[in-house]
Specification:
378 residues, alpha/beta, Hemocyanin, N-terminal domain, Rossmann fold, five-stranded parallel beta sheet, 51% helix, globular, malate dehydrogenase (decarboxylating) (NADP+) activity
Length: 378
């Protein structure tokens, strides 16, 4: 029998048939004259033994080989599904595949308004509540990973106050001093209040009246970063969610305005935020209230100031001021949300409301909330 023809039959046969074949082939080889002899279409004995050994191995463990093959196929299918899912996510994110997983680094980490982390290093220097600037000592620089992020010199807060007062006095325009003070508050809160407390007579007119009036008029032009919370008509039905976005939870004092009667300047709409911010600076500097316990809020229901509505830099709602039921529904939702989030002991000061609303709000909420209005109360 020809080995080549027998090999074709082996592929579908059982092991014992193949053994029989090998036996018969061996007899043929012996009769043919040894290793140097070949029949028509037959191979050497060494090749026969190699093939027999290979087939024996494959035939001895057919179930295990099939199981491995099935597992490999399952793993391949699963991998293909994962690749397809990643491509779908990438397409949803703009069609660019997230090759290194950068976009998914925080994908499963929930972001909540009450999640805090301890700032250190570069982040600490950008945190106005804890940044001390050059006043960080050598020990603090090592403990908070600030080594190299600051110049090597350590400058006390007293010397920093002296330098800043020197710089402020170089400004001839009061609004320039106001902007410089707000910039300081936004990068180094401790130094801001030390500066204000040590020089209250000179700086009080800068952070509050009369300079704050001009600041409110031009608030859209000098706006850099939000210093308070904005509640507008667009937030109706979800005011409580807006309040939850504020990072501080232990609020003791809220100063709120709707911007309709800012000082003697009239309706300044959303730009009246300068009043709550300035008033609460006095709560801290003169009353000793922690800055983190103070919350300035502006209720934006529009404005009737044509100049602001046409100002390209205006930062509030560009619509006529809401009145009547629409106005009071928003205020009621706001007052209920404040009580629910911060409790009934939080102090709410109504600031610079028009008289027709100021009296109504005070009468309505004085029995259910801790409120007052220094514009109409003695």
């Amino acid at each position: 029998m020809c080995l080549r023809c027998s090999g074709c039959c082996i592929r579908g046969s059982k092991l014992r048939l193949f053994v029989l074949f090998v036996f018969r082939l061996t007899l043929q080889w012996k009769r043919g004259g040894g290793a140097g002899s070949r029949g028509d279409g037959c191979t050497s004995c060494l090749e026969v033994r190699r093939r027999a050994a290979a087939v024996t191995v494959r035939a001895a463990q057919p179930k295990r080989v099939e199981a491995v093959a099935m597992e490999s196929a399952a793993e391949t299918a699963e991998a293909e599904k994962e690749v397809a899912a990643e491509k779908e996510v990438a397409a949803a994110g703009g069609g660019v595949e997230d090759k290194y997983g950068e976009d998914r680094a925080t994908e499963e980490l929930p972001v909540t308004p009450w999640a805090f982390s301890v700032a250190s290093g570069y982040t600490l220097l950008r945190d106005p509540h804890h940044n001390k600037g050059l006043a960080f000592t050598e020990r603090e620089r090592d403990a908070h990973y600030l080594r190299g992020l600051l110049p090597p010199g350590v400058v006390s807060q007293d010397l920093q106050v002296k330098k800043i007062m020197h710089n402020l006095r170089q400004y001839k325009v009061p609004l320039q001093r106001y902007v410089a003070m707000m910039d300081l508050q936004e990068r180094n809160e401790r130094l801001f209040y030390k500066l204000l407390i040590d020089n209250v007579e000179e700086l009080l007119p800068v952070v509050y009246t009369p300079t704050v009036g001009e600041a409110c008029q031009k608030y859209g032009s000098i706006f850099r970063r939000p210093q308070g919370l904005y509640v507008s008509l667009r937030d109706k039905g979800k005011v409580i969610d807006v309040l939850r976005n504020w990072p501080e939870r232990n609020i003791q004092v809220i100063v709120v305005t709707d911007g309709e009667r800012i000082l003697g300047l009239g309706d300044l709409g959303c730009q009246g935020m300068g009043i709550p911010v300035g008033k609460l600076s006095l709560y801290t500097a003169l009353g000793g209230v922690r800055p983190s316990a103070c919350l300035p809020i502006t209720i934006d229901v529009g404005t009737n100031n044509e100049q602001l509505l046409n100002d390209e830099f205006y930062i509030g709602l560009r619509q006529r001021r809401a009145t009547g039921e629409e106005y009071h529904e928003l205020m009621e939702e706001f007052m209920d949300a404040v009580k629910q989030i911060y409790g009934e002991k939080v102090l709410i000061q109504f600031e610079d409301f028009a008289n027709h609303n100021a009296f109504d709000l005070l009468a309505k909420y004085s029995k259910s909330h801790l409120v007052f209005n220094d514009d109409i109360q003695v």
